[in-house]
Design brief:
The chain is mostly helical. It is built from 20 helices and seven strands.
Length: 496
């Protein structure tokens, strides 16, 4: 037998739930006569159906334009808006963000948007109502930046530059409890990204405007843009006029010659060294006027980032090519000659018939090291061809191994404690590191070709031409010197 449930007791008037309570609440709120309960001001968290004409866009929104609106407008016209936006009272927003008040587009409107600008634009275009949740607490807690960033990061169509501007806006905001800007760790936490991702986004904002525009419209990938942002001037700055000229020159090389970002940076290093050999400062060449936007995206020619190399010069005046060292960042700096460096030639270069050959050899040596610094330095067929060549010419092995050993040690590839080439390559062979063994074998084959091409008083043949053409078509992005071009033309005439 079960016990029946007790009947609920009817509340007395004035205790809530009865007409007496409703009347008392209306009188307390001042809603007498014909005024309705809905005349009460909305509260935080309340869902409202608003006329879009009563809502102003938020000046903190970092979108340059609203993309893909045609399909959204068509959908809203047919079905309406199902996902509410977020609004605040304009007066509250302007009081809590006085620094943004002058930039509010329609200060006379009752509400201002948080997230939901595309939905708002679609509502304006179709005459539909705009469902929105009132969140004055976002303004009072100075959390509008975080809300906009969180909303935008979860949606498609935001360019890397727009995302970077949103993070930068968050970085500049004042801590709600103290009169200070947010720390980097606080920005990372509130942005919802890793520290590395935040750093890469912010680095994009230090690029020249032309390169930022290329990233924004999609002609240049975020990864490639970040890689260009790491190019430094001779003093190590990434934001000087000289550094910006290098970054812009790199982007122009990518457009003009469809180079990857790694190849463009290698070309910049080679250009700087070429100027040094000519007795000029390694500062970048004067740049042409900014180009019109290219219709063909250069980013399509880019490949995965290789290991970067930092280029510095040797400290003596020996005339040796600058050393290449692996850097902790992806930056490649243009060669800076040592202040004590002086030309070692006692006679004018034109008086030495071997001078053009030597200058070309120095640049090729650098190109070889730039290539070996890459993760993907050559295709399998290219590696095999060079390995076959050195195996079939064993008399070349000793000199080739010595040069390859020097390259690889400078690049910090393999055991650094092996001073003799034979010991070094024996250790590599015993390492069971397949990638290192392939790199070392390719380096010996590449060095054999280079040692042969650099020999003085020797007439070039087809193997030498194949060597420079490989460097030109590789990620080293080598440009043949005038002397080398003459050798190519001479052999071409011989074949005819």
């Amino acid at each position: 037998m079960t016990t029946p449930l007790p009947r609920p007791k009817r509340k007395k008037k004035g205790e809530g739930g009865s007409s007496g309570t409703l009347r008392a609440d209306r009188e307390k709120a001042g809603l007498t006569g014909d005024r309705d309960i809905h005349a009460l001001p909305p509260e935080d968290g309340e869902l409202l159906d608003l006329d879009p004409e009563t809502i102003s866009p938020n000046p903190m929104n970092m979108r340059f334009e609203l993309r893909d609106m045609d399909s959204m407008i068509a959908d809203v016209r047919e079905r309406g808006i199902h996902t509410p936006g977020v609004v605040m009272h304009t007066k509250v927003f302007m009081e809590c963000y006085p620094e943004w008040a002058p930039r509010v587009q329609h200060a006379e409107r009752q509400f201002i948007l948080g997230p939901g600008h595309r939905r708002h634009a679609a509502a304006l275009a179709t005459g539909r109502v705009m469902p929105a949740v009132l969140r004055d607490d976002l303004a009072r807690g100075r959390r509008v930046e975080e809300e906009l960033l969180s909303e935008n990061s979860s949606r498609n169509g935001l360019s890397p530059i727009e995302q970077a501007l949103a993070i930068d806006l968050l970085r500049q905001r004042v801590h709600e409890d103290e009169d200070r800007a947010l720390s980097f760790d606080e920005v990372v936490e509130r942005a919802g990204y890793t520290a590395g991702t935040v750093s890469k986004y912010l680095a994009l904002l230090k690029l020249p405007q032309e390169v930022q525009q290329a990233v924004h419209v999609g002609d240049l990938s975020m990864r490639a843009g970040y890689s260009l942002s790491l190019l430094k001037d001779s003093a190590g700055s990434k934001e000087s006029v000289e550094a910006h000229a290098l970054q812009l020159r790199g982007w122009q090389l990518m457009q003009d010659e469809q180079l990857s970002v790694e190849a463009a940076k290698n070309r910049l290093a080679l250009e700087g060294t070429k100027q040094f050999h000519a007795g000029k400062s390694p500062a970048p060449k004067p740049l042409p006027e900014p180009r019109a936007e290219s219709s063909a995206p250069a980013g399509s020619a880019q490949t995965a980032a290789g290991e970067a190399a930092k280029l510095t010069t040797s400290s003596g005046g020996s005339g040796e090519a600058p050393h290449v060292q692996k850097a902790s960042s992806a930056a490649v700096s243009v060669i800076k000659p040592a202040e004590t460096s002086e030309p070692t030639l006692s006679v004018p270069a034109a008086a030495d018939p071997e001078a053009p050959r030597k200058a070309a050899a120095d640049l090729r040596d650098l190109a070889c090291r730039l290539l070996l610094a890459e993760d993907r330095y050559a295709k399998g067929t290219e590696s095999s061809a060079r390995l076959v060549t050195v195996v079939l010419n064993p008399n070349e092995w000793k000199q080739a191994a010595a040069k390859a050993h020097g390259w690889l040690v400078e690049l910090k590839k393999g055991p650094s404690n092996k001073k003799r080439p034979s010991d070094y390559f024996a250790a590599v062979a015993a390492s069971e590191d397949a990638n290192l063994m392939l790199r070392a074998a390719f380096a010996i084959g590449l060095a054999a070709d280079e040692v042969r091409a650099a020999q003085p008083n020797r007439e070039w043949d087809a193997r030498d031409i194949a060597h420079v053409q490989f460097l030109a078509s590789s990620r080293a992005s080598y440009q043949l010197s005038e002397w080398e071009q003459q050798q190519v033309e001479r052999l071409s005439r011989v074949k005819l």
